[in-house]
Amino acid sequence: MAVKFLLYATVLFAGMMVFLLLKEPYTLHAKATGAKAPADIELFHARNFQIKPEGVTSIVNTQRVERYKTFDKLYNIDASHKTNQGLTGVLTSNEATLRDGVIVFMKDSHYERSDGVRLDGEEIVYDTKNEILSSQKPFVFTQSQSRSHGLSFVYQMKEGTISANTIHSFIETGKK
Hints:
By secondary structure, this protein is mainly beta. It has one helix at residues 2-22, and strands spanning 41-52, 55-67, 72-82, 88-99, 102-113, 118-127, 132-135, 139-143, 146-150, 152-156, 161-165, 168-170.
């Protein structure tokens, strides 16, 4: 009886091994079904410093970072920097992507400088190497009592100059 049981178990085991050898291996089809690929690394409450010979020039704080192979996705961003004139600027956004030194701020993006310059837009692109803010989407630029609405802009952060296209401006001057 024990020999018969051992023989049946051996035949069953051999049959399962042949089945497993012939069966196609399991594969994941996450991309085919449209599911989001998992991040390689996920960070919480991250802080990034940009340090130059003159000291710390910018600090980027985020609540969450998802790092993928070719880009990073940032959530709830608060980025501050110093200009050549000693002014401090703060850029905030709910969501952004970082790829090759270019941060694209999406969903409720705002930039405000310590002298009262303010820039609000749907999508603001920050080139960290050239220190340029730009956008190809509608924006509002405010300075003192003046306000400008436009469709696209390029803002040189270090020099404090802005070039804009298709703008409507409301300029108030002080009374003399």
